[in-house]
Amino acid sequence: MTAPENKSAQTLAALGVRQPDQLAPLFAEIRARFDADIAAVHDEKAWKQFRDAWLGRKSGVLTQITDNWLKPATPELKRVVGQELNKLRAYVEAQIEARRVAVEAGADESALARERVDLSLPGVTRPIGSHHLIRQVFQQIEDIFVSIGFSVVEGPEIETPYYNFEALNIPEFHPVRDDMDTFYIELPKGAPSPLLLRTHTSPMQIRTMEKRRPPVRVIVPGKVYRRDNPDATHSFAFHQVEGLAVDTDITFCDFTGTIEYFVKQFFGPGVKTRFRPSYFPFTEPSVEFDVTCVFCGGSGVSTGGGTCSKCKGAGWIELFGAGMVDPAVYGFVKYDPKKVSGFAFGIGIDRLAMLKYSIDDIQVFFQNDVRFLRQFP
Ligand code: DAH
Known about the structure:
about 375 residues, alpha+beta, 7-stranded mixed sheet, 3-stranded antiparallel sheet, 13 helices, 10 strands, binds 3,4-dihydroxyphenylalanine
C-alpha cells in the first residue's frame, strides 16, 4: 500500500482515482496530514521547513498536486481537482501564516519568560561606605579653621631636606633632626638633591610663604612619615594638620585665642586649654598646648575613683606643639621679619582622634578592620 504522505507524488490514475467523488476524501486526507504536521511546528526553523515542504515552488506538496494530479487529470476530473486544490491552497496558506504569527509570539513569550525580572528576589545589597575616622577628623578641623578665615592647602609627601629641615631653621647637624627618624629615598648617583618622606607638614609653611605674600592663613592636612616601630601610640605613617597665620599685626593673643577657639570647637565648650614653654627651631617662643583631660574632666580621678589612667592624675593632656614663627624662618622666604609676625601649629590628627573618640591603639586606624570602621559611620 502507498503511504499516504506519498500520494501527492503520484498521479490520480496511479492512485486509482477515476470518479470526481473520489476527490473530496483524497483532499481530506491531504488536509488531515497537513493538520497533523503543522501541530508539531513550534519554532521558526521548523516553521520554515514546513512552509517549504508545503508551498515550495519546486517540490512543495501543492506543487506536486498541481503537477501530478491537476495537469495530467482527465477532463471530467480536472475541474473538481482545480476547485479542491484552490480550497486546499487557501487553507494551507492561511494556516501557515497563522502559524508564523503564533510561532513569533511564542518566541517573544519564551524570551520574556527567560528575561523576566523576579521582583520578589532579594536584591544585591551594595553596602554604602563612610569616610574613615581620620578623614572625618580632618574634615572637622578644616571646617573649624575655614570658618575663621583659613584656607586649606596640601603639599608633597616626598620632600627635599631643604623644605623639611633647612628652611625651617633646622640646619644639617642640628640635634633636633635626631628626633625625626627620617626615611630617605634611595636615588641614583648624581641626583640633584636627596629626597625624603616628609616627617611633618611644616615644610608647607615654607612652600606657602614662598608663593604668597602676607596675609597668609592656611592649614595643611596630610600624611607624614617617621621611622617609628608600630605600637599603641606610634606608627611609621600618621597624620598632621599644620597651621600658619602671618600678617603685619599678629600677636601672641591672636595665637592663643585662635587655638583656644579651635580646641573648644573640637572637644566641646567644657574643656580648658593651657600652654607651656617648649622648643621648636622654627618658632620663638614655642609652646605646647594642653587640654583638660577629656576622660576625667580634668579632675585627675577616674569615674571608678582611682587615678585617671589617661592623664595619670594630672588632669591635663598634651595636645600639640605651636609657637610664634621664628624670625629666622622669614629670612628663607624673603619676608621682612621687622614687618610681619605670625603663629604656627602642628596638630597630630591620630592623637586628637584617639582622645576625642576614646581609642587606645593608633594601629586601628591603619588595619582597615570594618568592625572598627563601622563604628564611625
Ligand atoms: N612640626 C612639628 C612636629 O611634627 C609640630 C609643630 C610644632 C608644628 C610647632 C608647628 C609648630 O607648626 O609651630 O613635631
